[in-house]
From TrEMBL:
Coiled coil: none annotated. The keyword Hydrolase does not apply. Residues 24-256 form the VDE lipocalin domain. GO terms for biological process: xanthophyll cycle. Residues 1-19 form the signal peptide. It holds the Pfam family VDE. This is VDE lipocalin domain-containing protein. It comes from Mytilus edulis (Blue mussel). GO terms for molecular function: lipid binding; violaxanthin de-epoxidase activity. SUPFAM superfamilies: Lipocalins.
């Protein structure tokens, strides 16, 4: 009985759900075991209760709750109600994000340039790009398909540091637009798709813009500078500022993740 009451709490109070109007019958029919597991797990339950206090438009708050309490049980619950059975759709941000895809993309980019380990030294999106200790390793799975493993640190709501890992697959859009890449992953039980546009690159850096989606009408965007080291040379930084300006971006507003305690 307690797990059914918890479901009602989620349905009536969870800010994302309130806007999405979930199919309660669908959730009970297909996801009751995942719901019960979530209720009985303190982290999963805390994630839901935490998000209740975020309101309907504070996405930073919502994702802080996600990142602070996410675990396998939470992922399975979200996967069931959102990804597998579509009992709930993630509504768009308020106001909705409209991606502004730059057109000044690289025309000679080769996927092999990704191979190796990179750190994000500059990031545009305060929610997604600014975690400390972000280290991404790219490998070639087979011809035309690459995979990435990203490690990063989360400062949870309780002040503790949690280490997170994300796995992604990457393909080139097509041979005529080598600077456009397609990323796919499953994070927090949700299917994440994003289009990356390489704005500039060298042997020791890659500057890329991305537009991502969690559902058919939920979009987000950002941009990152990958580097082989924690600092960029003055010449590279000056060049990237001009590239950013040409793409409608302001590099001076980008965050600088810390690597002091990695």
């Amino acid at each position: 009985m307690a797990d059914k009451l918890f479901l009602l709490l989620v349905v009536t109070s969870f800010p994302v759900v309130r806007a999405a109007i979930p199919n309660v019958i669908c959730m009970i029919e297909h996801c009751s075991s995942q719901m019960k597991d979530c209720y009985e797990d303190s982290d999963c339950k805390n994630a839901m209760v935490c998000m209740i206090g975020c309101g309907t438009s504070n996405q930073t708050c919502v994702f802080n709750c996600f990142f602070s309490y996410e675990n396998e049980i939470f992922d399975n619950f979200m996967k069931c109600i959102v990804t597998d059975y579509k009992c709930m759709e993630i509504p768009p941000l308020n106001p909705p994000v409209k991606c502004h895809r730059p057109t000044n993309i690289q025309t000679t980019f080769e996927m092999e340039s990704l191979i190796g380990s990179w750190i994000i030294v500059l990031g545009k999106n305060q929610i997604y790009d600014c975690f400390n200790c972000q280290n991404t390793t790219y490998i070639q799975a087979h011809e035309g398909l690459f995979s990435a493993v990203e490690h990063y640190d989360i400062k949870a709501i309780d002040g503790t540091i949690k280490h997170r890992t994300t796995f992604e697959s990457i393909v080139q859009w097509n041979a005529t637009t080598p600077g456009i890449l397609k990323y796919n992953s499953r994070q927090m039980g949700l299917e994440i798709h994003s289009e990356w546009r390489v704005l500039d690159y060298g042997t020791d850096y890659i500057f890329a813009y991305y537009c991502g989606s969690i559902s058919s009408n939920y979009f987000y965007e950002g941009a990152v500078v990958y580097s082989k080291s924690v600092t960029l040379s003055n010449d590279t930084l000056s060049k990237l500022k001009k590239v950013a300006t040409d793409a409608g971006l302001d590099l001076n507003t980008f965050c600088k993740p810390s690597y002091n305690s990695c």
